[in-house]
Every structure is written in structure tokens, then in C-alpha cells.
Request: fold
Amino acid sequence: YPYIICHAWCKPGDQDNISAIQYQVTGLTPGMTYYVRVRGKALDGSYSLFSSIQWFTVSPGSYSVAVPITGNPSGDVEITSANALLSWYTPSAQSSGQKYDLEYSTKEDFKDAIRVNGIDSMSYMLSDLKGNTKYFWRVRSMTNDGKISQYSTEGIFVTSKYGVIQKDNLIPKNYLLSQNYPNPFNPSTTIEFSVPKNEMVSFTVYDILGKVVRVVLNEELSAGNYKVSFSGEEFSSGVYIYRLSTPSVSMTKKMIMQK
Reply:
């Protein structure tokens, strides 16, 4: 086991009142990455600031597999679209044919998490995310011979309202759904709409076959004039349909993505 000149945090936990300038940590998990910091304690019980954080990875050896480390997005970073490109890396050499299992959830305990199995790269694009929502995600490694690592520490990000903003404080008299501009567009376009009263509003984009490709908005809005910034960066060229729906009306228009 390594000797750590530190106050260890993360598993196996904090250690207080160490009288030497080194400490032996036992019970470490093969393939796991640990983070370490240290602070001094005076005789009167006061503490110094913590040192900078250092880290190390226990070699997985031939009987285990390295636990991935979450990259981006994390740290409560805000995502301004319905898509998020998750990325991670392994602290030791990747074995041939190694794959990854991803879990993501709106609950910190990962209850009812969605799992994506057998990812063959160290990134994955999530789509159709809910607006104004906190997401938690984690990933684990899997080798061809069936070895599976523990899950990584969780990554955390928050989605915004995808650029849906209220234009002004005026209250319109009628419902309105404007033609997007520019049109054709690549990759972004803007769509304006108006609702004359407070109610649930859904704004959805479909492909030409009627399949939902993105739910941009589905929540209660106050009466007002709005505009939506829509990005089709991950979509192919073609005709798309956008629909504004409330309990009172349903309005649709076409737009063209041209790469």
C-alpha cells in the first residue's frame, strides 16, 4: 500500500489526529482513483488550510479493471440545450475491446436511472433532456472477458430552459407562432411565439415522418411574447415541423435544416 503524507478524503474516509507526517491507507480497491489532501492541527485545536488536492490510482492488475473518472459536464455546469456530450477517461491503460456502461438520472441515488450498455468510446451524447433539471451520471468499465469495475464518482450538470426567453412585458391579444429565422438554417434558428394567458405550453420539434426529435418546452408559462433558440447541430439536413400546443390551440409550421 502507498504511504500518503496526507489527510485522506474519499474512501476509506477521513483520518484525524495523525501524529506523523505519513499515513498508511489500507483496504484500497484495485482500479479505483483516490484523492488526497492534508492540513495541520495546532495544540490549541486550530487548523491550517488544506493543501492542494493530489490523487493516485491503484493498479487494477490482471484481476480487475480501472474505474473511469468523470470528465464533462460536471460540477453543476449549466447545459443550454436538450443535448449533453458526456466524456470520461481511464487513469490506466485501456484494455483491447474495453466498453463502458453509463447510468444517468434526475435523482442523486440513481433510482430509476436510465442505463446505456456497451459504449465503445469514452464519450456519449444524451438527447431529449428535460429543461430546468439537475442530472446525475456515472460510468463503469467492462472488459471482453467479463470483468466489470465499480461505478465512477458522479458527474452533475443542470439544464436550462434551452434559450426560451420572454421578449417583453407586453401581453398579446392572440396566439401567434412565427416562421423561424433564418430559414433554411445551419445549425441554429430562432422561433417567436405568443400566448395571451397563463397556461401549459408545449413546444415540440418533429421530423418529416412525425417522429419527435426534441421536446423544447413543456411547462406553464405566463402570458407574454417569447422566443426560442433552436440548434439542430446533431440533426441531418431536411424538413422539420415545429408545433406550439396549449389546452386552447395547436399551431404548426415547417422549417428546413440545410448543412
Observations:
- Residues 1-12 have pLDDT under 50 and may be disordered.
- The radius of gyration is 25 Å.
- Residues 4 and 23 are 5 Å apart (CA to CA).
- The chain is about 0% helix and 45% strand.
